[in-house]
Specification:
Rossmann fold; Isoleucyl-tRNA Synthetase, Domain 1; 3 domains; 4-stranded antiparallel beta sheet; globular
Length: about 500
């Protein structure tokens, strides 16, 4: 609907240009957004206010003229002007209800799109020397990176998930690498490609040769240095030690150069906040090697602060009482960990309350959303237990019976899902999706508590069950994108 309204406004704008009210060379970006207040309609646009200055007309006058020029649509029951010049659209009830059959017919595909089709992206969200268990400090970057990869894939990008073993110069064996893979799998994170730094010899030499040829290397006290300070880094970085072995920065540079040379459109790194020097060096190296800035992206993630019983839990990897990612999952469960880790923007600090994560209450966001999914499953079990009938085709034909405000609010939320997935993917912000899922779960719980679903009226019962099944489907689709399960019983 949003795209349709933007197209209709473009038609109206062209009509005003043909009359001379709007100069033909004025072509503002037309944006339609969902309103936050139902009293202001379902969608709104500020196009008239953008046209006020170049036309010399009052925004409200332009808004009224645009409305007059809009194509007629059965999906819109009213269009009004709101000060200081907004154009507010009110959807027809039938148009709002259309999302229910759309969800039920598309199933798991609802919310997915081909927005990023044809673009290849490599995501690296964790790398380590396989000498022990993954520390819990890597939990948030891992969860964020994995979720961002899934979101980007959901909107059409071709995503390669890569795990790099930083094994150059450290003790590594097959069982250690296998153990890390198993830990990540238990956390719901799967990498299609595992790269060992020990295999980067040729790629590293190519990088050294290119930087040498461009005058970006120099030698000092037997160490070869990269002039990264000339490309925005705060200091130069050691690239090759006196014994010829590459530094950690050398491996990073060889990896990203090798990836971009193979035709990947973008490399996305999700690092912990302590990797800021690594990020600066990578950025400098890409510029020095001639790779366009838009080809790589680095997100520095603030670490989560763990609390138990109101007291901070040490995350130090230097003490004997190390807290590992596996220990965290053993204590609170994988689902709670995955959900809570991505609830905040990557650049914001986050306090992870272990007691809250373990609790089975509405205060636990993960539990609250999963419970909404399980609640619909419970309704379906009650339907069978009470020997009541349900006919989905009849329910879809009877959606006009849904007239409660809470029902329209649920349908509006369902229609937002594809847009929320796209926004979360393009902004690399999974918290937009968790916030949406919490809103949808809140809507479902409120509706269920206020309105009887399994009513005696067959037609109304069929329609209400269809609505709940659509909510369950979207909750499931959203939870799967953040690596959280969809239990039927809780």
């Amino acid at each position: 609907m949003k795209d349709r309204l933007e197209q209709d406004l473009a038609v109206a704008l062209a009509a005003l240009q043909s009359t001379g009210m709007v100069p033909s060379d004025v072509n503002p970006s037309i944006v339609v957004t969902r309103t936050r207040d139902a009293g202001h309609g379902d969608f709104a646009s500020n196009l008239a206010m953008m046209l006020a200055k170049p036309t010399g007309h009052a925004p409200c006058d332009i808004a009224r003229a645009l409305i007059e020029a809009l194509p007629v649509s059965d999906d819109i029951r009213d269009v009004v002007v709101a000060d200081p010049g907004f154009i507010n659209f009110f959807q027809a009830d039938e148009a709002q209800a259309a999302v229910v059959p759309a969800v039920l017919s598309q199933g798991r595909q609802f919310g997915r799109s081909q927005l990023g089709a044809g673009q290849r992206v490599q995501v690296e969200c964790v790398s380590s020397c396989p000498a022990g268990p993954l520390p819990v400090s890597q939990g948030r970057p891992v969860a964020l990176g994995a979720t961002i990869a899934d979101l980007m894939e959901a909107v059409g990008f071709e995503v390669r998930r890569v795990y790099r073993l930083t094994d150059a110069g450290c003790q590594m064996d097959g069982p250690a690498a296998t153990a890390i893979r198993q830990e990540l799998n238990e956390f719901g994170v799967h990498h299609a490609e595992w790269v060992s730094e020990c295999s980067l010899g040729d790629a590293l030499q190519r990088v050294v040769d290119r930087l040498e040829a461009s005058g970006q290397l120099y030698e000092k006290e037997g160490v070869r240095w990269f002039r990264s300070s000339e490309f925005g880094d705060d200091r130069d970085r050691a690239l090759l030690w006196g014994n010829g072995q590459g530094s950690c920065f050398a491996s990073d540079i060889a990896c990203i150069d090798n990836t971009l040379e193979r035709g990947v459109d973008k490399v996305l790194y999700v690092f912990g906040a302590d990797q800021h020097e690594r990020a600066a060096c990578l950025s400098a190296a890409c510029q020095a090697l001639g790779h366009p800035r838009e080809k790589f992206e680095i997100l520095l993630t603030r670490f989560a602060n763990l609390f138990r019983g109101g007291e901070p839990v040490s995350l130090s990897t230097a003490c004997d009482s190390i807290v590992t990612l596996r220990e965290l999952c053993d204590e609170v469960g994988k689902d709670a960990a995955r959900f809570l880790y991505v609830m905040r923007k990557h650049s914001q600090p986050f306090d992870f309350d272990l007691d809250l994560a373990r609790s089975q209450s509405n205060e636990n966001p993960a539990y609250h959303v999963q419970m909404a999914h399980a609640r619909v499953c419970s309704v379906m079990r009650q339907l069978n237990q009470r020997a009541l009938t349900f006919d989905q085709e009849a329910g879809l034909a009877a959606l006009f019976r849904l007239s409660e405000t809470a029902e329209f609010e649920l349908m509006s939320l369902l229609a937002m899902f594809p847009e929320r997935v796209q926004r979360a993917a393009l902004a690399r912000e999974p918290h937009q999706l968790t916030r949406y899922l919490r809103d949808l779960a809140n809507g479902l719980h409120s509706y269920y508590n206020a309105h009887k679903v399994l009513v005696d009226d067959d037609e109304l019962r069929h329609a209400r069950v269809c609505l709940l099944l659509a909510v369950r489907q979207v909750l499931g689709n959203g939870l799967s994108l953040i690596g959280v399960s969809t239990p039927e019983v809780m």
